[in-house]
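Notebook B, p. 112. Complex prediction, attempt 2.
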Amino acid sequence: MKKLLITILTVFSFTVFAGDLMPSGHNWNIGSTNQALYDAALAEAKAEQKKAAAVGFEWRDIGKFMKSAKKAMDAGDWSKAKKLLDTAASQGRLGQQQAIDQADAGPISF
Amino acid sequence: MKRRLFLKSAMASSAVATAVGAGLLTPKMVFAASDAFTATSKAAVSAAAGASEGTFKFKAPKIAENGAVVPVSVDASNLDNVTNISFLVQTNNTPLAASFNFAGALGFVSTRIKMGKTSPVTAVVTSGGAVSALTNEIKVTVGGCGG
Amino acid sequence: MAKIKLKPKAKKGVIKVKAIVKHPMETGLRKDKKGNPIPANHIDHLTVTHNGNKVVDADIGAAVSKDPYFQFQVPGAKGDEITLAYKDNNGGTGSATAKSK
Amino acid sequence: MAEQDLLLPSLSKTDNIKERVMRIKIITMAIAAMLSSTVALSAQQSSVVQADIDAYQGYFLERFPNVDGLQGFSKGAYAMNEDKMMQFEAVMEMPPFEDLVEKGGELWEKPFANGNTFSSCFEEEPSLIRAAYPRWNSAKGKVDTLEQALIDCLVSNGEKKWGTGKGKHAWVAAHLTTLGEGTFINVIVPEGDEAALAAYNDGKKHYYAKRGQLNLSCANCHVEGAGMRVRGNTLSPGLGQTTHFPVWRGKWARKTNGVDGFGTIQRRYGGCNKQVRAKPFKRHKSEYDNLEFFHTAMSNGMEITTTEYRE
């Protein structure tokens, strides 16, 4: 419930903020601006995912996050979509780091 | 609604009618077991209530790996003239899972039962006219890893 | 339709009778994906016969697992004939006979 | 309670343990010697790999003195918990998979459109096939697995490929595992073969590298964590995990309403990867093939026990 409220507030404040910067009557532009931001975030997440997969350390849910992000975006919830794509990208980076950390993995206990 | 409480109150038919009327139970659920089987179950429950502690072997898991297939077995070959072995899942509407009558077979049976949740399970053995019973609690968990 | 797997095996004067009856053992309490109740369909009676003599006669409830498994022990020897027969609550029946190994 | 005894071997047992480990090592070596003398042409085991095997097996034997020797580990978590063992034995009394193993046998015998059968693709007699894999194929420079060999056989005979991991593919493999009862696992990484050692090391790295969001390696759970409980389940020891695959899992059976619970070892690898929230790899590619190579080698000297039930 709290989360929802925050999301609504964020979206609301974003709208107000954007409205301030843009001449009135150009509010229809927000949608396509968000779409561009979404496309960029998705491309980044995909790139990180690919890099993680290339070293064999992709995490399980990255694909799921991207699917959910698309759903959120289709429903007009850019901020939720952004959060999901950021998580996807960050998990991609964590997987790559894991590959580096585990480069010398081997038995330690015996 | 606690099932055990329900079992007791179900003795009064009016309580069943009320439950059905209130939409708590569909008629199918109440009549899932045949009248004859329900009667056998009731008889087994009351027999178990007055039973002495069994000296036979009752094998059942403490924690069931799979509630859909819980192996239970009774080895009462130490007793003479075993005429019946029954299994009761105490928290079920109809506690009796199965009742095996013997005439010439040894006092042994192994089978698999299904359990939706943790329950005490009682094995009841009738030998030479005397009834004895053993109860084990079988825990049913919804599993994780394994393999 | 239902298949019975019956394996009697004699050892030291006792025949171990192991059997699995392929049967859905529907309790009548479950619902399908659409929320319609699945009608009860379970074995309610089972007998085991040894050389023509009924040695086990059982009342079976819906709480017995799907494809129920039973093991009994009957005094006897290799070559003895074991028959397992069942009836379900819808009147369906089945039986299998095997010579003890 | 018995389980705690297993986890915390009492100090007074230490001497016994050392003796036991020695004894078992001698037996293992004897078996290995026996095997290598029967297969006179097979290459000698890499000394590096043999040292790994000794250390791996020694660790388990020392830590779980109550498990019945090396062979006892093939029963997995069941060997560490009487309550679970009793349920395993009850299932195995008349296992739910007998019919599908039989079907696997029928598929094994059934001629392809060109009249050949599966056996035309294998040099070994059927009972020796299970233990012959996984093995190093020096000509191709890769690990051959039994499951891949079955698929290759279909293809080379002009048949349609089967899906991997389960279904018919697993039934035929289960048939061969059942026939293989009593044969011994004996994976050889030929001494001096750099490419074979590299494949082995690749599998070893997969085994010990932490992965996924949970940052856990195979070894974290099945070496250090063996016998411990996670979410109500006992973690099986890594030693002996390959003696009984394909397995029939209760969990997999429930997905098909009890019809087919079979899965191959590589299907299981995918499940393990997913459980630590890592993306599973494609079956029958180098990642899992090399893992299977390493993982199976760790159980060298253990008996194939027929296909079995697992939770």
